[in-house]
Design a protein that fits this description.
184 residues; de novo design (two linked rop proteins); 82% helix; 0% strand; disordered C terminus
């Protein structure tokens, strides 16, 4: 009788421990997504200023500028992780075309405000990448725990859901993984 009671207590304590670990991981996923979201919002705030500076130098490049603003607005209005990732990839592509414009306008390339905004945006992109990596790591931990036995029994009983990764699309992966070419 006493042994059975000890076994039941140990199983309950173990079950509570598994439940608490799942709750902790779910909260870490939410917190890490909030970090990604903060840096994405910072990028959204920088883009209009950058576009305004470019407008002054490249009045006839309105199609590129409109594409950047359109991509920014789409990314801001995304509702789930998969849609957000897709829209962020489009936004990254349009930003590359915006920076390519600066090559055509030497005065723009030398503009202090443009250079500062470009640097801030580059720093923000690095922070987005780091926070995206941390988010995906916490998602992996949660998803693994949800699928592993015996925590999968607790996860199923309490309706824990797997989280979505925030992934780069193939074109973005290729651009990130390419080694820069240096020539003298």
């Amino acid at each position: 009788m006493f042994t059975a009671l000890i076994i039941i207590v140990v199983l309950v304590v173990y079950g509570v421990s598994l439940y608490n670990k799942l709750v902790l991981l779910r909260q870490q996923v939410k917190e890490s997504w909030a970090t990604v979201d903060t840096f994405l919002k910072r990028r959204y705030d920088l883009i209009p200023n950058l576009v305004e500076i470019v407008k002054g130098y490249a009045k006839h490049e309105s199609q590129t500028l409109e594409a950047v603003i359109s991509a920014r607005n789409a990314a801001m209005s995304a509702t789930d992780t998969a849609e957000r990732a897709k829209d962020e990839n489009v936004l990254s592509g349009t930003l590359k075309s915006l920076f390519a414009l600066s090559e055509s306008y030497p005065d723009l390339k030398a503009n202090v405000n443009f250079l500062e905004l470009q640097q801030e945006l580059a720093d923000t992109e690095n922070k987005i990448q780091a926070s995206r990596q941390f988010y995906n790591t916490t998602v992996m931990s949660l998803n693994t725990r949800i699928e592993m036995f015996p925590s999968n029994l607790i996860a199923k009983h309490f309706h824990f859901q797997s989280a979505e990764y925030f992934e780069l699309d193939d074109a973005e992966k290729t651009a990130v993984m390419q080694t820069p070419k240096i020539s003298f």
